[in-house]
């Protein structure tokens, strides 16, 4: 089960320190608070921005109660309050009520916020007022964008500011579009009405459906009230230490956070203590209302967390230790050891962000499909451009209607895969690649989603390389970090000490390390850099630390000073032990679960020192060979190659990855290749998923990749495997070429020296035509 990046969060305030981001007032302890989850700028993870209950609904629109993980953890009245408010929520719609449509003039042209193209002169563009932001849209993009969030459902020309000032032809076009959309909406409502009537008729004939739903709701209400009654009694009658003793006595692992201890102990008292995870045999099962099941907190290996989940875990009898037998509340608990079975809601959980990071082009009239794709985290692209990773059409429309022939031609030229409109239903019950195979309707050759993602990622990286006039996107960091080699390694640029300090080393070993941690399931792609710096001319010492998400500006750094080398070394070793679980001086590194792993880097100078002689000026090599040598040893070509494969050139500067580490990565890809060849008789789907996840985590830890804020891509297709294999081949060649670049050329022409180092005879071939 993948870790989903939930949009919102609901809980009771654990202290009185949090502040509402809307009204800026404190949120009281134990008060219901709601949050919008956002990416942290200081570390690789997401954080909640908290709001009072009433303030929250002024800031966002909730599409479904399933957008709130942990809703079942709240008291029943609060659950129902959120469900009812969510159904009637109109906050997001209000922000779009006043729309200004104007005519673009050549002098004051603007670009569309969606497709980024210039809105042509004497053509309409739409500006929406959303607090302090105003965005311009091409009229086509506007209708495609706002259609999916029901803004057009109640939009009329009367609600459009300055509509009467528009030219007549522009007014007519807008009216025609709104009328067309109104007809489509009425048609959709009629279909839903007929479908609802059929369902109601079926329900009435059976006499069960409505009564079962109400009965389930009533039983869940009773269970929730009883659960909270036990929680309140535990909080009022037992200390944290006493609750920990109860859990340990019943064979449960304990958590440091009191609210989690109370919840887990309540679960044990009400339903019975949980047996260890049957998959990893060591992990502690715990209830997750986010996934509506019990999950495991253990690990299947040192690289990968256990993904076991069940709604029917094995349990045992709850017992009370002798030391707590006199507690007044515990005396009141049933002595027979009988436990009730936990009830689960039968509603199907919506897997938000299941399709996050995938760009879709959808048949224009499939409005329900558009909404569902956005609910699942997919991105809708208004035009069939090279940014599209997957297209969705109805099979009848694609193969039958002549008006879509142009789309077929474009998809074929751009090698875009196409699936049928039942893909949305399939993706929620089977894995992505199975759903793609089952719903595929394109007859032309197409690239996989992974290949498309790499192509799009490289194109965006090229635009943001140094020298580009385009501004960087938030969270992205593609400018190379300045590397100054002093002492035993590269001084952290963020320390600001590269001019006065060097990396400290003792007995030939530098106190400098780069650590990585990757988890494709949770989306983690973190780095942690640690080093000791010594002043060039005095006995001043610093420990420099930097951390964050690879390939982005997300992260921070810290510099701490020490009076002596021993103090700095002691602190360095403590941090290293905390982050890796290993002693600094241990000879054999042992990977520990949820800990960082060191990346072996062989630093060269960032840029070779300028040669005394300009390369090629005194060379006796033929002109064609000279041109080839320039290409072979082009630093810019190295950068482009690494960016093309999404390798992070900040955390792994050119040519610096150790060759033995590259070889280990080759071995990992070979193992994945064997796994992909195995059929279901040799390996179950769950075993295949676990092994591929495990090897993917290892590969991306050894070879740092820049995924931006997107989660790392599992190595689960042969296409992606080939891409990564080519990457490693290129890294080996770059490493060899960079070693040659850094050799001393003396008074000889550098091009001749580099040619000699290749140990090859190269001749130009003359073609006669």
UniProtKB/TrEMBL annotation:
Organism, scientific name: Trichinella patagoniensis
Start and end residues of each BRCT domain: 350-424
BP GO annotations: double-strand break repair; protein poly-ADP-ribosylation
Reaction it catalyzes: NAD(+) + (ADP-D-ribosyl)n-acceptor = nicotinamide + (ADP-D-ribosyl)n+1-acceptor + H(+)
Keywords per UniProt: ADP-ribosylation, DNA-binding, Glycosyltransferase, Metal-binding, NAD, Nucleotidyltransferase, Nucleus, Repeat, Transferase, Zinc, Zinc-finger
UniProt family annotation: Belongs to the ARTD/PARP family.
Protein name, per record: Poly [ADP-ribose] polymerase 1
GO molecular function: DNA binding; NAD+ poly-ADP-ribosyltransferase activity; NAD+-protein mono-ADP-ribosyltransferase activity; nucleotidyltransferase activity; zinc ion binding
Enzyme class: transferase
Occurrences of domain PARP-type (ranges): 8-85
Residues annotated as domain PARP alpha-helical: 618-742
Location of the WGR domain: 500-596
Region entry Disordered, spans: 188-208
Gene Ontology, cellular component aspect: nucleolus
Transmembrane segments: none
Ligase keyword on record: no
């Amino acid at each position: 089960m993948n870790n989903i990046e939930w949009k919102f969060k609901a809980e009771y305030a654990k202290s009185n320190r949090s502040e509402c981001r809307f009204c800026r007032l404190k949120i009281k302890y134990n008060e219901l608070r709601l949050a919008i989850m956002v990416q942290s700028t200081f570390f690789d993870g997401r954080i909640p921005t908290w709001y009072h209950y009433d303030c929250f609904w002024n800031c966002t629109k909730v599409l479904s109660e399933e957008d709130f993980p942990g809703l079942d953890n709240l008291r029943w009245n609060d659950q129902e309050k959120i469900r009812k408010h969510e159904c009637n929520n109109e906050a997001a719609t209000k922000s779009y009520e006043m729309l200004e449509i104007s005519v673009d003039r050549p002098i004051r042209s603007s670009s569309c916020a969606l497709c980024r193209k210039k809105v042509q002169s004497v053509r309409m563009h739409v500006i929406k007022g959303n607090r302090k932001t105003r965005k311009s849209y091409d009229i086509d993009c506007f209708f495609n964008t706002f259609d999916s969030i029901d803004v057009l459902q109640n939009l009329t020309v009367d609600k459009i500011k300055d509509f009467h000032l528009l030219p007549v032809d522009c007014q007519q076009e807008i009216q025609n579009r709104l009328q067309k959309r109104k007809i489509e909406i009425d048609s959709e409502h009629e279909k839903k009405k007929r479908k609802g009537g059929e369902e109601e008729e079926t329900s009435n004939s059976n006499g069960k459906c409505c009564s079962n739903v109400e009965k389930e709701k009533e039983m869940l209400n009773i269970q929730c009230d009883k659960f909270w009654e036990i929680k309140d009694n535990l909080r009022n009658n037992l200390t944290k230490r006493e609750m920990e003793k109860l859990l340990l006595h019943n064979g449960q692992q304990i958590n440091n956070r009191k609210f989690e201890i109370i919840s887990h102990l309540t679960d044990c008292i009400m339903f019975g203590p949980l047996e260890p995870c049957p998959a990893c045999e060591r992990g502690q099962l715990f209830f997750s209302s986010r996934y509506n099941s019990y999950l495991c907190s253990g690990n299947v290996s040192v690289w990968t967390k256990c993904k076991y989940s069940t709604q029917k875990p094995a349990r045992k009898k709850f017992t009370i230790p002798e030391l707590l037998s006199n507690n007044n509340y515990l005396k009141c608990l049933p002595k027979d050891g009988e436990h009730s079975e936990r009830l689960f809601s039968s509603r199907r959980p919506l897997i938000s962000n299941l399709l996050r990071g995938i760009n879709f082009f959808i048949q224009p009239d499939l409005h329900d499909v558009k909404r569902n794709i956005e609910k699942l985290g997919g991105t809708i692209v208004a035009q069939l451009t090279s940014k599209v990773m997957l297209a969705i059409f109805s099979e009848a429309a694609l193969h039958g209607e002549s008006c879509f022939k142009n789309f077929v031609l474009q998809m074929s030229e751009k090698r875009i895969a196409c699936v049928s409109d039942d893909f949305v239903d399939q993706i929620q019950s089977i894995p992505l690649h199975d759903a793609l195979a089952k719903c595929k309707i394109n007859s032309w050759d197409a690239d996989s989603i992974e290949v498309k993602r790499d192509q799009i990622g490289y194109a965006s990286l090229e635009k943001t390389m140094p020298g580009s006039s385009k501004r960087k996107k938030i969270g992205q960091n593609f400018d190379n970090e300045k590397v100054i080699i002093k002492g035993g390694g590269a001084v952290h640029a963020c320390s600001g000490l590269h001019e006065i300090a060097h990396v400290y080393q003792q007995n030939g070993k530098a106190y400098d390390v780069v650590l990585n941690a990757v988890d494709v399931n949770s989306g983690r792609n973190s780095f942690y850099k640690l080093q000791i710096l010594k002043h060039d001319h005095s006995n001043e010492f610093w420990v420099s630390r930097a951390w964050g998400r690879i390939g982005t500006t997300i992260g921070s750094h810290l510099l701490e000073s020490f009076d002596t080398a021993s103090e700095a070394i002691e602190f360095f070793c403590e941090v290293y032990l905390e982050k890796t679980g290993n002693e600094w001086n241990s000879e054999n590194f042992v990977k520990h679960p949820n800990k960082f792993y060191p990346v072996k880097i062989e630093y060269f100078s960032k840029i070779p020192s300028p040669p005394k002689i300009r390369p090629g000026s005194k060379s006796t090599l033929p002109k064609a060979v000279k041109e080839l040598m320039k290409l072979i040893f082009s630093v810019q070509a190295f950068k482009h190659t690494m960016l093309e494969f999404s390798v992070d050139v900040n955390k792994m500067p050119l040519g610096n990855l150790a060759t033995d580490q590259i070889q280990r990565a080759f071995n990992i890809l070979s193992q994945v290749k064997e796994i992909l060849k195995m059929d279901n008789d040799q390996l179950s789907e769950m075993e295949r998923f676990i092994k591929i996840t495990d090897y993917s985590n290892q590969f991306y830890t050894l070879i740092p990749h820049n995924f931006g804020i997107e989660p790392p891509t599992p190595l689960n297709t042969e296409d992606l495997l080939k891409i990564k294999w080519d990457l490693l081949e290129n890294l080996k060649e770059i490493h060899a070429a960079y070693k040659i670049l850094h050799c001393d050329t003396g008074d000889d022409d550098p091009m001749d020296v580099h040619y000699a180092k290749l140990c090859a005879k190269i001749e130009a071939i003359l073609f006669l035509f």
